[in-house]
Amino acid sequence: MDSIKDPLLHSLLEICKHHYISTHSHSLTSGLALNKGKLSAESIPKAAEKAGLKGAIRNQSLSEVNTLALPALLLLNDGSSCVLKQIDSKTATIHTISGTANISLPTLSEQYSGTVIYFKPNQNQEGLSATTKPTQHHWLLSPLKQAIPIYSEVLLASLFINLFALGTPLFVMNVYDRVLANHAFETLWVLAIGMGLLIAFDLTLKLLRSWFLDQAGHRIDLQLSSTVFSSLLNQRQQSLKIGSSASYLHEFEGFRQFLTSTTITTLIDLPFIFLFLALIGWIAGPLVWIPVTVIPVAILVSFLLQYSLKKHVDLMMQEGSRKQIMVYETLACMSEIKIHNAQSVLQRKWEQLAEQCGHHGLKVRKITQTALSVTQSIQQIAYVFLIVGGVYLVTAGELTMGGLIACSILSGRALAPATQITGLLMRLHQSRSALNGIKQIVNAPKESDIKNTIAPAFIKGDIALQQVSFSWPEQPPVLDNISLSIRQGEKIGILGPMGCGKSTLLSLIAGLTCPTHGRMLIDGIASEQLHPAQWREQLGFYTQDSRLLYGNIKDNITIGQPETTDEELLKVARLTGVTRFCAQHPEGFSRSVGEGGFDLSGGQRQAVALARALLKNPPILLLDEPTSAMDLSEENRFMRELTTLIQDKTLILVTHRPGLLKLVDRLIVLDQGKLVADGPKNDVIKQLNQRTRSTTTNNAEEIA
């Protein structure tokens, strides 16, 4: 990304420079939601956080700007920005894309939009002991803390709602004890009007509370979903489990609903049980001991069932995740399933999963229904005892008829939250299980952090692998002790039998996977010290399993370069042959590729993916079987076009097509993960031919 075309990014880079932070435009914007390839004002704090800066957006006039917090970023009326370095009563020193200049205060005031962004470094963690290092913002607690002001409004509304709930029993008590006894109809209407107003206020507060809960849940959901998806995009390739991650994201929907459901309302209303009990005690004295005794019993019943409930909720969520993974794999491999007539096998597995998931679901429903039925029965028993005890108090003249009815209403309100505890705990278990899945994404190994990287102004592109090995967990090495150097501008072919590690080697060079042993150097710098986004800006990488995303052909080609001009698009489209099949379709480049690109043929998908890899005209090309779906004439045409394109570029080519070796000058041969040959093309070919003749002779002697 060119910071000259993005004034906000240019200003942020200048701020980083002031704080002695070495960074790069792609490092700052990697993983952010950009608007036409440019930063928005709202995304600046997120970009700054990547560089170890904390950004705070304020709406202030120039006279209110905190001079002690300079430099600061000013947003201008034309959508651009500048860095305010100094300001006095008459002039200001600002930095823009054009450079640093002094400007009069009236002129700056006309351009200034009224929004300033201050920055300060996060506490440096270098050199701090383990006991003094600051903690990172927790991915869950941080958005919850930001929603505290809204939840405080919810608590305030809940306080008044529960206070208003006292109105109905007090209204009933006064009607029975005073209005009926004295035929005081005027008092009746005064009380009725008062209750009408109370009900109106109660309705208003309930609607407001619901709105506040929705707003809080919406804010938390936006921040959490952004954090979780950003973590997903930043995962290391070898730790990424596609089906499991998709299942975890699906489970996150359950936690999102928890944030806005009646569960929160129930939690908030629980403490107000004591308010209703206090009023019962004030009206009826000893009758309060009936709900005081019954409520702990109802709660105890719920907690006694929690072990079994938690067990089956966890198992139900696990089986549900397995079902989600199976659905994903089935849809992704539908052709293979049908070709090999595996539908019956998959159907059987699905029915087994559905049966297991349904079994645990039935157990969960049985437990919750049992707990609900028992607590409701306890509530009814409490009501009966309350009436019986109340009759004795009324007979003794210690309680009025209105007081007894009021206490029965209050008892129901006090017991209601207690009867909902089982359902509340079930939703808590489901949310906890969903959060555990999300933790798998958030806490998975990530690619390099910008705060631990350096940002050279220029990358030449010399690559060195030093005793590099790579293996998947609990698997034998895919690459074993590979050492080689690749100079800028070299044209290299990589040969070897299937499974020898050719594609893995390209993946390591691209930074998609990390060596399990050894290291990779780029221009003499350890690859871990370069931000992956800056390194990949130098690469055009085509893989054998390159996939397309839902959208049209143009979107798929320009997915990493949204600011691409039509001329640049047409150039790579002609080179890869995309223009030919686009010209035969009425929608051209706007033609939809379908899910996964399966509305296109295999050759067409390959052409689009190749165009995407070549679009940014990168200095280093990594091509893994780029002509596997092409016929001979298409391959020859592609070779002619590519020969001109790669004259001043580094080419690393994996292929089984002998014709493509015309593009390279050096060959690297791998076998069983080991480097068996490396040198000039002709020398390596002679070496391979001699080895082949020797193997053939030995085989012939064995047969003889």
UniProtKB/TrEMBL annotation:
Read off the Gene3D superfamilies from this record: ABC transporter type 1, transmembrane domain, Cysteine proteinases, P-loop containing nucleotide triphosphate hydrolases
Which keywords fit this entry according to its UniProt record?
ATP-binding, Cell membrane, Hydrolase, Membrane, Nucleotide-binding, Transmembrane, Transmembrane helix, Transport
TM helices/strands, residue ranges: 154-176, 188-208, 258-283, 289-309, 381-405
Where is the protein found, in the record's own terms? Cell membrane
GO CC terms: plasma membrane
The chain positions of domain ABC transporter read 463-697
Keyword flag Protease? no
Q: Which residues form the ABC transmembrane type-1 domain?
A: 154-430
One Gene Ontology term of the molecular function aspect: ATP binding
Stored SMART domains: AAA (SM00382)
Domain (Peptidase C39) spans 1-119
Q: How does it sit in the membrane?
A: Multi-pass membrane protein
Primary site of residence: membrane
Q: Name one GO biological process term.
A: proteolysis
The record, for PANTHER family, names: ATP-BINDING CASSETTE SUB-FAMILY B MEMBER 10, MITOCHONDRIAL, ATP-DEPENDENT PERMEASE MDL1, MITOCHONDRIAL
Q: From the Swiss-Prot or TrEMBL record, give the protein name.
A: ATP-binding cassette, subfamily C, bacterial LapB
What organism does the UniProt record list as the source? Answer: Endozoicomonas montiporae CL-33
